[in-house]
Amino acid sequence: xxxFFQVTIDGLLTGMIYAxxxxxxxxIWGVMDVLNFAHGEYLMxxxxxxxxxxxxxxxxxxxxxxxxxxxxFILGILTYKLIIRHCLxxxxxxxxxxxxxxxxxxxxxxxxxxxxxFRILTGTFLDGKKxxxxxxxxxxxxxxxxxxxxxxxxxxxxxIKRTRLGWAIQATAMDKEAAELMGIKTESIFVLVFGLGGLxxxxxxxxxxxxxxxxxxxxxxxxxxxxxxxxxxxxxxIPGALLAALLIGLVEALGGFYIAPVFKYVVVFGLYLLIxxxxxxxxxxx
Amino acid sequence: xxxxxxxxxxxxxxxxxxxxxxxxxxxxxxxVIKIGTLFPLTGSCALAGSRCKAxxxxxxxxxxxxxxxxxxxxxxxxxxxxxxxxxxxxADHQGKPDIAKTEAERLFNQEKVYAIVGCYNSACTNxxxxxxxxxxxxxxxxxxxxxxxxxxxxxxxxxxxxxxxTESIEFCDVMEWMNEVKGTNLHTIGIxxxxxxxxxxxxxxxxxxxxxxxFEVIADVPFSPGATNMNSxxxxxxxKNPDVVFGACLGGDYxxxxxxxxQMDWLPKMCLNYxxxxxxxxxxxxxxxxxxxxxxxxxxxxxxxxxxxxxAAVENIYKTKIGPSVPxxxxxxxxxVATFILAQAIEKAGTLDYxxxxxxxxxxxxxxxxxxxxKVAFVPGGQNAKAMSMMTQLQGGEYKRVYPPELATHDIxxxxxxxxxx
Lengths: 286, 422
Hints:
The structure holds two protein chains of two kinds. By secondary structure, chain A is mainly alpha-helical. Helix content of chain A is 74%, strand content 3%. Chain A has helices at residues 2-32, 39-57, 61-87, 92-114, 140-162, 164-174, 176-181, 186-207, 219-233, 238-258, 264-278; strands at 130-133, 136-139. Chain A has a two-stranded antiparallel sheet with strand order 1-2. In chain A, strand 1 and strand 2 form a beta hairpin. In chain A, helix 1 (2-32) packs antiparallel against helix 8 (186-207). In chain B, strand 1 (32-39), helix 2 (46-64) and strand 2 (85-92) form a beta-alpha-beta unit. Chain B folds into two domains: 30-162 and 306-384, Rossmann fold (3-Layer(aba) Sandwich), CATH 3.40.50; 165-298 and 390-421, Rossmann fold, CATH 3.40.50.2300. Chain B is built from twelve helices and 15 strands. By secondary structure, chain B is α/β, with parallel strands linked by helices. In chain B, helix 2 (46-64) crosses helix 10 (311-322), helix 3 runs parallel beside helix 4 (122-134) and helix 11 (330-349) packs across helix 12. Chain A binds chain B through residues 3, 6-7, 10-11, 14, 111, 115-120, 122-123, 128, 130, 132, 137, 139, 141-142, 211-213, 215-217, 220-222, 225, 252-253, 255-257, 260-262, 264-265, and chain B through 41-44, 46-47, 49-50, 195, 221-224, 226-233, 235-236, 239, 251-252, 255-256, 259, 262-265, 282-283, 286-290, 419-420.
């Protein structure tokens, strides 16, 4: 029984990380109807920022997430200003394909500048620390990263639902023209939303090097799972993305342990297909 | 002004045309043998792939130019076949078998390479070497370890490294020796492997060798390479708690596996690795203390310098291509061996005829100072019958020779030191 609890906790912790990565993607889609294919590569960029700060300046990921978040926030803003803004005037697919191109560019820049080497931060503050309750082991790097991720998701959700800025974002998402008539600067909202998307994934990327190796391909599967979370949760819904991410983390861990590790992604994508068949707009879609 | 520009453009175009034609004639007259390399230069095994590529470049540097400081065949002369130089054409299969096949076809059909050296991943070597065989061209394989590759009866396929079959038997030999000499009472085995041709075949050979040696495989854990986490995999091993784990995890997956075991606070008594991330000195360096006490079959490590004295001079050239702190490793050195052996065979055959070169490769025993046994000789199917490796254990970040006893320099640290006592 203790193994069941252990695997369940592992799954929930993994799901919380997925939630933070997916929430930024969900936000961008919800407001702008743009799918950011470079989202996984934003994560990779955030991880590299954190890694280099740790490697060169001995700054722990517990602090360097701030720099990673800020860097990806700016990267998000630049992406919007330099690419997406121009694509929005074109056919709907152009923004999507542009972000795909951006993902390729970021990955190849990383390959060129940092080589394909796997880079590991050792001796971090949380490295090797764990909480042991009976037979259950809670590794501190994963635990702290996951709790942090959950807190950031709740803060983003709070901002969207409870602040004037969040209301402006919601108004822009619902009806851009009407929002402009109400005096909302929708262009600034778009810039901010892309920045916030980058911020979420940047924070996740800043924390992950405390237990994950950094390399140019690291964002690929995270990005794919984030897409599944967003689609499963309902495009544009942050609570939906959170619930979907936790579900995915759970089925991945339980399926991997009780069926076979090699089937864990089969179970994840199987669940996604099942939910999409029953509720094509996702769990919280409207 | 426009008239002048038009006239200038015409003259310029004429010059370019004449220059291009002339340079074409010059190139056609050059004595060049194009060899393709096919490695994972992107993807989760890119680190190993880039080192294999650098190793082939090193061999070509030694073959094309006089390097009297290197005590290896062909180093004293410049080129082969009376002045032919080898030119490399590099390709990237990204660790994907379908891309490996397409790139092999492109190398042969469009780049017109004479032979291919590759592919690191057995799963990619399989289709790429079939392309070569279909076209009657030579495929030199350095380090892909799936035994199945040399059980296909191919005529133009040659592999330098020991196979996972050999390694599996060696793993069981170590366990038996430990039980007999050290009284360790090792009985149960867990096998963790990537769900690819390489991993599955290694696992099959592991199970076969274990059954023959009377050990029990109690955990069979395949995984999808490139996963975001390996929690379920390690939890499965932890739940079964085998005495020994055989690992077939390449590149980044090896790192993730080791780090996840640390997070889950679990280790087997002994961990034996196929030709994977364990043998990668950069990964070992990155893992630091976490990488210590793991074991695996090793074809070369700087600690073997006294056994393979000719490597040092060649390794110096290799370091200029890959980085001053990166020595040869078990995998990359085999790709250099593959290139040297091909060049030696062409030189000995005295022709580029594929059948004659292939026959020459089979008919001779080749001097290979970069190989552990010092010799290379092929048996039908293309396996190097002289391939050898020895068991090492990472101790203090260095690959120490621990088995067989007659070649060992250090004792095996047993059981592995728990994470909280390091």
